[in-house]
Design goal:
Blueprint: E1 3-5, E2 10-12, E3 14-19, E4 38-41, H1 45-55, E5 65-68, H2 71-79, E6 85-89, H3 90-99, E7 102-105, E8 112-114, E9 117-119, H4 124-137, H5 140-149
Parallel strand pairs: 4-5, 4-6
Antiparallel strand pairs: 1-9, 2-8, 3-6, 3-7
Length: 165
């Protein structure tokens, strides 16, 4: 299935969670991964990323990538010691860390842009882009990001309005 996307309305990154008692301080390209058990949610962008960037490159044995149906199951497996690392979106990772038992560690970072998917060729795409541009310019998007995502002002990086060609 082919779709069009609006301009991005939010940019985030992955959140790397480890057990609160873990000594793993960061996850970088030089971190030895061979003995780590990594958990992801099935069908997530992180599941595909782990297969492409960890397993197919030989950095992680296929048996060490565990997939779970729900994000909550990934975090529960981490708390119970079934996995060593959980990879998910940054905002939920922060919330799980706030609840206790796990902590977010720094990672190399891979930005994820969020946008609205529309039927290929939809006439709504330019209208939605115009509406989002207005929300960015008048500060509404920043206020909503603070109110509903709990972001600080310095964490909000509004996307640039689309280029008019």
């Amino acid at each position: 299935m082919s779709v069009d996307f609006t301009m991005p309305y939010y940019t985030s990154a992955e959140g790397i969670l480890v057990n609160a008692k873990s000594t793993l301080a960061a996850l970088t390209p030089s971190t030895p991964m061979g003995n780590l058990r990594v958990g992801v949610q099935q069908g997530s962008v992180y599941s595909g990323w782990a297969k492409d960037n960890l397993i197919s490159t030989g950095l992680l044995p296929a048996a060490n990538l565990l997939s779970f149906s729900r994000e909550e199951e990934v975090v529960q497996a981490l708390k119970q010691g079934q996995i060593d690392v959980a990879i998910l979106d940054l905002l939920p990772a922060r919330e799980y860390a706030r609840q206790g038992g796990v902590k977010v560690i720094p990672s190399a970072g891979s930005p994820q842009q969020y946008a609205i998917a529309l039927r290929k060729g939809s006439s709504l795409t330019p209208q939605l882009n115009a509406a989002m541009t207005a929300l960015i310019q008048d500060g509404t998007l920043a206020r909503l990001s603070q109110q509903y995502l709990g972001l600080d002002e310095h964490e909000i990086t509004p996307p640039a309005p689309p280029q008019v060609v």
